[in-house]
Amino acid sequence: MARILFAWVGYTDLRAVEESDKVGLGPIAQLLSKESFDEAVLLDNYGTEKNVVGYIDWLQPQTSAPIQHQKVKLSSPTNLGEAYQVAEKVVAERLKRHRDRGIPCFHLSPGTPTMAASWILLGKGRFPKAELWQTSREQGVEKANIPFDIVAEFIPSISRGTDERLLELSEALPPQAPEFDEIIHRCAEMKNLIVQSRMFATREVPVLIEGETGTGKELFARAIHESSTRKEGLFVPVNCGAIPKDLFEAEFFGHKKGAFTGADTDRKGYFESAHGGTLFLDEIGELPLDSQVKVLRVLQEGKVKRIGESVERSVDVRIISATNRTLIKEVATGDFRSDLFYRLAVAILKLPSLRERKGDLGLLVDSLLSRVNNSLKTSPGYTYKKLSANARNLILKHTWPGNIRELQNTIMRVCVSVAKETISEADIRQAILPSTSSNNNDILTKPLGEGFNLQELQAFLSSHYIRRALEETAGNKKKAADLLGLKNYQTLSNWIEKYSIDT
Question: Which CATH code for domain 173-352?
Fold first, then answer.
C-alpha cells in the first residue's frame, strides 16, 4: 500500500532554503531524505508573505516522492479546531484517491505545537493505522510513540458540528437550547437523549426520567423546564422519598390556617406553588400506594383541595417525574399503580450510568475540577488544584457506582482536604468512599474487562481496612495489626508505606 506523508510547512523548513548552515535541512527535508514515501502532501497556511512554492522547488530534487502542495486557510496557526478539521479533510480526500488503501504518515515536528496536536488526534482517532514521525537535529529521524489511547477521553468531535446541524434542520428538530449546555457530554447516547429532551420540552406532555442515583435526572428536568413555554413559571422540585406519610396531603395540597396543630397560616401546597410551571416529582417510586391515588386524582381533575377547606382550586402544572427504579417492573409487582404510571410515562428518558458513557468521564472530571477550584478560590489559603497523571488514571478506571454525584463529591472532598497543588493517586484513593451498595457482594460482581484492575481493587480493599483499623485503635499500629490478623506491626508499617496511607 502507498505510504503518504502529510506535514504542515513550518518556519524552520522555509529557513532551510537560505540558512541550512544554521537550521539544517529542516524537519520535512530531513524526514524525506531518510525515509521512503510514495507521496508527500504539504499543507501551507501562509499568505503571500512566504515563498512556499520556492521551498517546494528546492525540496523536490531531494526526494523521489512526488510533492503535492495543499494551500489551506486558518484564522490562526494555534486554533486546534480549525487545524484538526482542515487536516482531516485533506487526509480523507487524499486517501480516497488511493481507494482508502493508503497508509497516512503524519510528521509532528514542523509547524506549531497546535498543528502537531492535530496530527496526534487524527493518528490516534480518525486514522488509527497512521504512522507518526518526528525529527530533530540531535536525535535524527524516529517514529513517535504516543503511549496512551487518546480516542475515548481526549478527542473532541471537532468536525461533526456542521453535519449535526444539517441533520437537525432536515429532521425539523427544535433549535439548540442553551439550557442543556450544563449537561457535559460527548458520547452518542447522551447526544440522542438531549435531542429527545429538546423535543419533549416544546410539548406539554408529562416526562418520566429513569436512571441510577447521581446520573443527572434533576439536571435534565430543569433543562426541559427552562427551554419550555413554562419557563416563566416556577420549577418546584419535590423529593417524594423525604416526605413523611402523615404530612403528604399538607405538603402537596396545602392547608388552611388552623386546620391542625401548627398550621399558623394559610399555606400553598406543591401543586399550587407550581401553577403555570413545572412540578418535578423526584424519586416518584418512593410514594406509598395511597399517596399515588391522591396524585392521580389531581392529574385527572386538575384541582386540589387544601386541608381545612371545602373549595377546590384549579391548578395548571406540567409533571416531570424521576426514579432510580424501573417503574414498569414496579407496576408488575403491584408496588406502583399502573394508571398513574401511564399518566406519568407519556415521554420517557432513560439516563445511562457514568460507566456506560464512553468518553464522557474525562470531560466531567475537567469540568467539575474547574468548578470546585473556582468555588474555593476565595477561601483563605486555598491552592488551585490539578491532577497528577496517575490520579487522573485512577479516576478514569473507577466504576463510580454513585455516578456524577459521587464523582463531584470525591473531587470536592479531595480539593478541601489536600493542601498541595498537585493531587496524587494516593489522595484520590483515600477520597473515594467504599461502596454503599445494599448488595454485599457488589465488590465481587464488578464487570471484568475494560477498566478492571485486580491490583487496584486489592489496594482499595487493603487501604480501606487499614484505615479502619487505625481509626479504631487511635493510631496504635500493634493493636491495628492484631485487628487485621497481621503477624506484627512491622508488616502493617510496610503496607502503610506501600499504599501511601496517611497515618
Answer: 3.40.50.300
Residue 352 φ/ψ, nearest 5 degrees: -75, 155
State phi, psi for 181 to the nearest 5 degrees.
-65, -25
Beta bridge partners of 131: 105
Distance (Å, whole) CA 169 – CA 190: 19
What CATH class has 454-503?
A: mainly alpha
Closest CA to 23 of 1, 55, 47: 55
Interatomic CA distance for residues 399 and 401, integer angstroms: 6
Q: Rounded to whole angstroms, how far apart are CA atoms 324 and 282? A: 9
User: Would you say the pTM of this structure is higher than 0.85?
Assistant: no
Distance CA 202, CA 223 (A): 12
325 phi, psi to nearest 5 deg: -100, 175
Give me the CATH code for the 3-143 domain, please.
3.40.50.10770
269-313 pLDDT, tens digit each: 999 999 999 999 999 999 999 999 999 999 999 999 999 998 999
CATH T-level topology, domain 354-452: Helicase, Ruva Protein; domain 3 (1.10.8)
Q: What is the pLDDT of residue 451?
A: 58
